[in-house]
Amino acid sequence: MTTTDQLNRRGFAAMDDTQVRDRSNALRQAVTASAGILPDADLESARAVLDKVGQRTAIGGSRTVVALAGATGSGKSSLFNALAAEPVSRIGARRPTTSRPTAAVWGDDSAGPLLDWLGVAARHRVPADDRFADLLDGLVLLDLPDFDSRVPAHRREADRVLERADVFVWVTDPQKYADALLHDEYVRTLAARRARTVAVLNQVDRLDVESAEACAEDLHRLLVADGIGSVEVVQTSAVEGRGIDDLAARIGAVVQEHNAAERRLVGDLASAAARLQPLVGGQEPELSQGSTELVSALSKAAGVPAVVDAVRRDYQREASKSGAGR
């Protein structure tokens, strides 16, 4: 992975992997020290995160992967096509559904290795004269299968790609915006990963202005309750083309920051360390001065030094960031 002193062809800084590398090393140290001590299932989960981080950072580049995710009939494929300005993603004739992810790519830089890693075969390169070409340069936009699909394979595919995306765009509609599946199993779960999030209330053409505003406000309330501190709801109508420019602007702002992938990976690492924390003591044991060997043995048995240090580093970094931003 290139660092901030290295630039891509357009002069933008590629992902700065300093935090990712430091936190990966700390978590790896914790996992190694805890082998045979902490439950295998918990350690395997942490190892899976480390594998994902290693694979993503090895690809390099500064592209941002944005996933359009939503329930059946929410109109995310129509929004996808509207953003790409072409009918790229097929919309089901009988029951609207997407069976495999489709990608739209903005910019000239190669996205092949990244799309291979994402496991997305259907790819469309947006022309350089597209109206959003400059704003979305560097974007890989994915149209995912419905996460509430009655076909288990479709839902598994959506879950697989969501696990690797950098940014989530939750597309819902006036009928399903409060659906428990969306909030309990997806938004609330992924909110802890610190990934950038955009919320879309689509199909507002079915409502009058006052009702659309009420739905948007209620959706915002639910998202805050899910743990997303700062999120705005974009009102759209793919049928009428309303809100498409606004949605493109929100996505473009995230893409131009060139750090969404880093944020997602750092969030994954922090979450993995936090899941290990309750399995060990909160502090190292205090014994007599002459009990050095026993202290070392007990500390190792509890997995305290490595795991607590990994979590402590995470908290210290966040505290430093908060202090610097005041």
Automatic annotation (TrEMBL):
Record protein name field: GTPase
Taxonomic lineage of the native organism: Bacteria, Bacillati, Actinomycetota, Actinomycetes, Micrococcales
Pfam families: MMR_HSR1
InterPro entries according to UniProt: GTP-bd, GTPase_Era-like, P-loop_NTPase
Provenance organism: Branchiibius cervicis
Domain spans labelled G: 66-202
